[in-house]
Protein: tRNA N6-adenosine threonylcarbamoyltransferase
Amino acid sequence: MTKETLILSIESSCDETSVSVIADGQRILSNTVLSQIDSHKRFGGVVPEVASRHHVEGIIPTIDTALEDAQVTMEDINAVAVTEGPGLIGALLVGINAAKALAFAYDKPLIPVHHIAGHIYANHLEEPLTFPQMALIVSGGHTELIYMKDHLSFEVVGETRDDAVGEAYDKVARTIGLSYPGGPKVDQLAAEGEDTYDFPRVWLEKDSFDFSFSGLKSAVINKQHNLKQKGETVNAANIATSFQNSVVEVLVGKAIQACETYDVKHLIVAGGVASNRGLRREMTRACEEHDIQLSIPSAKLCTDNAAMIGAAAHYLYLNGARADMALNGRSSIDIEEVGE
Ligand code: KG4
Ligand code: ZN
Structure:
């Protein structure tokens, strides 16, 4: 029997310190996630400096726990992978410096990974990716439709022109008094309300796969101001349902249209907002109707974690992608550069 390839991966691009050990890009031996949400809650969002400090405190214990949970030592590991970007620069640098130290001390190859490639490969941990495929990325920082004709081949066919969808969720949540991160709470509230406010669906130009959510966010805020001025009460559950219906209809409509235009029969959804129940339900229904295979990772793999970074790193490792000790964090990187 050939020995499995073990990759130790590190993710620290935002507010989760996470370390994982992945066998052959698919089997999770450990996936330790240390969340900082409680620290950022009181500020209503992620404070970069606070995030960096928590990563510094958490990174070494998280590495130790991930190795312990996987019941392996650094000697057993074939390569060390780390999120290079995009993300908060100070937060990224903590993970990158830890990865460089491990790679140097144990003489292991160092593999830089694009955070969004990680979100896409989260699917691969539960169901093998098949090609060609379309990926809809919906997170706190990204909203993109990406066409993949093979492993590590990323063509961005649509992206947001303003707010990311998770960002719009978090901002709308704040207007109805829900604490950070508001996305999951809006999702929960949306199940209790009705679509009474009739918010716009922003389709942009015909045939465009781009998105725009800032107009919708303003419509939600204006509606609440108008109601208050007229002395009428704002029904928060109805705001949540009306907002979510608008977002979901556009995400589903554009994703299906992109699959048809690119003649793709496999759609994956990735990123924190992929755990949204309304989106999962409607996307499932639409894919059944259009005979498209749909993959969405389970909720714990949708939000930031190192297992997804390890899954993408496996293919980069096989492809010969290597970084040296000059590796630096990059707050923004074009995903189309990956695999070149
Ligand atoms: O992918 P992720 O963990 O971090 C980024 O890379 O951005 O995504 C976090 C985002 C937050 O904006 C959060 O509010 C949103 O995902 N989110 C949700 C849900 N769960 C997380 N948004 C809507 N519905 C959800 N169920
Ligand atoms: Zn993410």
Observations:
- The first helix runs from residue 37 to 41.
- Residues 147 and 262 are 8 Å apart (CA to CA).
- The domain at 6-120+302-337 is CATH 3.30.420.40 (Nucleotidyltransferase; domain 5).
